[in-house]
Design goal:
With 324 residues, the chain is α/β, with parallel strands linked by helices. It folds into two domains: 201 residues, NAD(P)-binding Rossmann-like Domain (Rossmann fold), CATH 3.40.50.720; 96 residues, UDP-galactose 4-epimerase, domain 1. The protein has ten helices and 13 strands. Strand 1, helix 1 and strand 2 form a beta-alpha-beta unit. The N and C termini lie far apart (45 Å). The mean pLDDT is 95.
């Protein structure tokens, strides 16, 4: 039986990845600071602990795994990443996790390690036009991310690829573009835009109003979790090390994302734009390289994923209300 280690298994993407690997017949160990908030883990072994602690990391990477997935990071949505308040923690915590996990894998002679980078590492100057952002993989340099979160991701990308060159490892690096889906964070400040919009709309009475940060003309693309996992597994098991984008090319304005959530709800709700952290003006996945290297790219419509997320969040709100 093949074995896999999922770091960050208590998080949104990690939790779904554990389920996918179990369906493929893997024995899976999950590691995180916490259990999953929204679903019972399907991992064969789930270990609670701090991946910033080198001794702990060595205790969980106590054997050779066929595949290691390093998703653990200090991260969140715009309300967490772009305020500047959490910069030191974001850089320190995530860098320590990556240094520890990668070194422990090397010393256990584990070759195939997947690392989840982010589109936040792309230069700010290439994302000023909301209608024409440049997020091709080869546009990363000269480097100029718009956040310390992006700078740490860029450093860690180089770390994993350096271990490939120097130690004969087979690390694979992907740049995620706004992954979303059910069983993800939807409140508390770390939620991403799709979950935030669905929450606001679900809580808003018919005829009410929701707030949208910024002028709402900033653009993004959002990738549903199932397609993200497909891309991750294809890349991890390929001969291509990356970095490569894993994201959707369906770009949408944030105001239009909010309107989509409203349409799905069937309510009559208006928008009010207010000051708030927004990040770059435009970002959209460029999928030319992933098509070339993996002969695959995501193609599911955003609307389909938003319908599933809205239904799940509305259900969570109703369940909480009934329990209260």
């Amino acid at each position: 039986m093949k074995t896999a280690l999922v770091c960050g298994a208590g998080g949104f993407i990690g939790g779904h990845l554990v389920k996918r690997l179990k369906k493929e017949g893997f024995w899976v160990r999950g590691v995180d600071l916490k259990f999953h908030e929204h679903a019972r883990t399907e991992a064969d072994d789930f270990v609670i602990g701090d991946l910033r602690d080198q001794a702990f990391v060595r205790s969980v990477i106590d054997r050779r795994f066929d595949e290691v997935y390093q998703l653990a990071a200090d991260m969140g949505g715009a309300g967490y990443v772009f305020t500047g308040t959490h910069d030191a923690d974001i850089m320190h915590n995530s860098a320590m996790i990556n240094l520890n996990v990668l070194d422990a894998c090397h010393k256990r002679n584990i070759k195939r390690v997947f690392y989840s980078s982010s589109a936040c590492m792309y230069p700010e100057h290439n994302q000023l036009d909301p209608d024409n952002p440049n997020c091709a993989e080869d546009s990363a340099y000269p480097a100029n991310p718009d956040s310390e979160y992006g700078w740490e991701k860029l450093f860690s990308e180089r770390l994993y690829l350096a271990y490939n060159r120097n130690y004969g490892m087979e690390c694979r690096v992907a740049r995620f573009h706004n992954i979303f889906g059910p069983e993800g964070t939807w409140e508390g400040g770390k939620e991403k835009a799709p979950a935030a919009m669905c929450r606001k709309v679900a809580l808003c009475p018919d005829g009410g109003e929701i707030e949208v940060w910024g002028d709402g003309q900033q653009t993004r693309s959002f990738l549903y979790i199932d397609e993200c996992l497909e891309g991750v597994l294809r890349l991890t098991r390929s001969d291509f090390e990356g970095p490569v984008n894993i994201g959707s090319e369906e770009m949408i304005k944030i105001n239009d994302l909010a309107k989509m959530a409203i349409e799905i709800s069937g309510k009559n709700i208006s928008l009010r734009n207010i000051p708030g952290p927004v990040g770059v003006r435009g970002r959209n996945s460029d999928n030319r390289l992933i098509r070339e290297k993996l002969d695959w790219a995501p193609d599911a419509p955003l609307r389909e994923g938003m319908e599933k997320v809205y239904a799940w969040i509305a259900g969570e709100i109703a369940r909480r209300h009934n329990q209260g």
